[in-house]
Write a structure and sequence with these properties.
By secondary structure, the chain is α+β, with helices and mostly antiparallel strands. It is built from 14 helices and twelve strands. The strands form five sheets. A three-stranded antiparallel beta sheet has the order 3-4-5. The protein has a three-stranded antiparallel beta sheet with strand order 8-11-12, with no helix packed on it. The radius of gyration is 23 Å and the shape is globular.
């Protein structure tokens, strides 16, 4: 490659199925998310630079840092997904306490047994953790291992007991979410995961159709979500409701045509919302000035979030008449306002001080109007630009 060989050809020998399916890309990463040798090599590269062969406990790696102009859309989608994951993590982090999760003392040894022989563990009912309304067994964990990256098993084999307990807690959160769904009146007829390398969802969609499901909730990276939407349409899944993460928030999703119609996606903010701000710019003004400043399309919720944070801090300073930390903090603690971004109020308890507790996510839906696909806001009512279409088929 240093002599001019093609990256695509080199990727054919890639032994990481997830990266290979994405043309060799590992997506957006941050410091602390990979092993030290990989991190040091990756973050030392300049845009467009190809690095030397790097060895880690997982093998040998050829790293290239793409220029932003090459991956702008993928980078935006990756950051969007990470932001949504961060929001989700606030809710997920509270589940073990609110649902009284108890990880059994013998869980670390049991996890090692599952990793050693996942096939035999599938029939095991040994309890690793219990919580209000449910439990996680060795058999459950064995099935989860099928869809986790291959490196996961390698890491678990060398993990300490405390790390294994944290892993059991993380997997238990997924089981707790299913319990919450049932408590909300939803009947979960299919709980299916897929390996990161999946590019054809025909088998998954066949299971969805066979289950008799009315609604589909799922998705992952942009390629996953776009392919799922297209194949759900092509296979005539005949669902009444479809929500997919990440992909439908992108303007390029409309290229799916009929496959995009009716699909919904959660978001922190969209330019189409209709909040009435107590102070600061209107939605139209913010969008107009963003376009003029950066010479590009509409702002996404990352831009809106950043601006709103500065706006709230400015408002607190003005209300305090000071930049003294305690006085500004007191105004932030008492704040309950609406800006172009929506309602904002901060928790003040010892365990959750500073967390956002009033901002509603919005739900967008692709709808066909006059033969043209448009992304409309359908929830909450304060942000809605159109009525929700249900059922979509």
């Amino acid at each position: 490659m240093a002599a001019g060989g093609a990256w695509e050809r080199a990727n054919q020998a890639n032994e990481d199925p997830g990266a290979k399916a994405r043309d060799g890309s590992i997506g957006v990463i941050a410091r602390g998310e990979t092993v030290p040798p990989f991190e040091e090599a990756a973050f030392a590269l300049a845009p467009g630079e190809l690095g030397p062969v790097t060895e880690t406990p997982f093998g040998f790696h050829v790293l290239r840092r793409p220029r932003l102009s090459e991956v702008r859309g993928d980078f935006r989608d990756g950051v969007r997904q990470r932001m949504m994951a961060r929001v989700d993590s606030v809710y997920l982090a509270g589940l073990p306490d609110s649902m009284h999760l108890a990880v059994r003392s013998g869980a670390p040894a049991a996890v090692r047994d599952v990793v050693r022989d996942p096939v035999a563990a599938r029939s095991s009912h040994q309890v690793l953790a219990s919580f209000d309304g449910g439990r996680l067994t060795s058999g459950d964990l064995a099935r989860w291992l099928d869809v986790l990256p291959p490196q996961t098993e390698q890491r678990l084999q060398a993990a300490q007991d405390d790390d294994l307990k944290r892993f059991v807690t993380a997997v238990s959160r997924n089981a707790m979410l299913l319990v919450k769904a049932r408590a909300a009146g939803m009947q979960v007829v299919l709980d299916e995961s897929y390996p990161p390398s999946t590019t054809d969802f025909t088998a998954v969609i066949n299971k969805v159709i066979s289950s008799g499901a009315d609604a589909f909730l799922g998705g992952g990276h942009y390629p996953d979500g776009a392919t799922l939407a297209r194949q759900l349409h092509d296979q005539k899944a005949d669902l009444k409701w479809v929500t997919i993460l990440v992909a439908p928030d992108s303007e390029k999703f409309k290229s799916l045509g009929a496959g995009a119609d009716g699909i919904t996606v959660p978001s922190q903010w969209e330019p189409q919302v209709k909040y009435k701000p107590d102070f600061g710019p209107s939605i139209a003004q913010f969008t107009r000035e963003f376009r003029a400043k950066f010479k590009q399309g509409d702002p996404d919720y990352h831009a809106a979030t950043g601006y709103a944070e500065g706006l709230l801090l400015q408002h607190a300073i003005e209300q305090a008449g000071s930049i003294e930390r305690d006085k500004v903090a007191a105004k932030l603690n008492a704040m309950d306002v609406t800006t172009f971004f929506g309602r904002d109020k901060f928790a003040t308890g010892a365990g959750d001080h500073g967390l956002q507790i009033a901002h509603d996510m919005v739900l967008a839906q692709w709808q066909t109007r006059g033969g043209k696909l448009e992304k409309e806001m359908v929830w909450p009512d304060a942000a809605a630009t159109a009525k929700v279409v249900y059922p979509i088929h």
